[in-house]
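call fold(seq) -> C-alpha coordinates
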Amino acid sequence: MRNFVAACGRCNTSKGARVPTATQRLRIERRRRKYFPAGTPVGVGEWVRA
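ret:
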Protein backbone atom coordinates (compact mmCIF):
# COMPACT_ATOMS: atom_id res chain seq x y z
CA MET A 1 0.00 0.00 0.00
CA ARG A 2 2.94 2.35 0.57
CA ASN A 3 3.59 2.75 -3.15
CA PHE A 4 0.04 2.51 -4.50
CA VAL A 5 -1.72 5.50 -6.00
CA ALA A 6 -5.14 4.97 -7.53
CA ALA A 7 -5.56 7.21 -10.55
CA CYS A 8 -7.62 7.41 -13.72
CA GLY A 9 -5.85 6.65 -16.99
CA ARG A 10 -5.35 10.31 -17.87
CA CYS A 11 -3.86 11.18 -14.46
CA ASN A 12 -1.68 8.08 -14.43
CA THR A 13 -0.27 8.91 -17.86
CA SER A 14 0.41 12.54 -16.92
CA LYS A 15 2.23 11.51 -13.72
CA GLY A 16 4.79 9.48 -15.65
CA ALA A 17 7.80 8.41 -13.57
CA ARG A 18 7.91 11.51 -11.38
CA VAL A 19 8.21 11.23 -7.61
CA PRO A 20 5.97 13.46 -5.47
CA THR A 21 7.62 16.37 -3.69
CA ALA A 22 7.73 16.48 0.13
CA THR A 23 4.67 18.78 0.20
CA GLN A 24 2.73 16.50 -2.13
CA ARG A 25 3.63 13.46 -0.02
CA LEU A 26 2.29 15.17 3.12
CA ARG A 27 -0.99 15.98 1.35
CA ILE A 28 -1.33 12.38 0.12
CA GLU A 29 -0.65 10.99 3.61
CA ARG A 30 -3.15 13.38 5.19
CA ARG A 31 -5.80 12.35 2.64
CA ARG A 32 -5.07 8.62 3.15
CA ARG A 33 -5.67 8.93 6.91
CA LYS A 34 -9.35 9.50 6.13
CA TYR A 35 -9.65 6.15 4.35
CA PHE A 36 -7.58 3.73 6.45
CA PRO A 37 -8.04 2.57 10.06
CA ALA A 38 -5.87 4.14 12.76
CA GLY A 39 -2.47 2.49 12.97
CA THR A 40 -2.33 1.59 9.27
CA PRO A 41 0.81 2.99 7.61
CA VAL A 42 -0.18 5.73 5.17
CA GLY A 43 3.31 6.80 4.08
CA VAL A 44 4.07 7.40 0.43
CA GLY A 45 6.89 5.18 -0.98
CA GLU A 46 10.50 5.44 0.04
CA TRP A 47 13.04 7.68 -1.66
CA VAL A 48 15.70 5.70 -3.52
CA ARG A 49 19.21 6.87 -2.79
CA ALA A 50 21.97 5.84 -5.18
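The mean pLDDT is 76.
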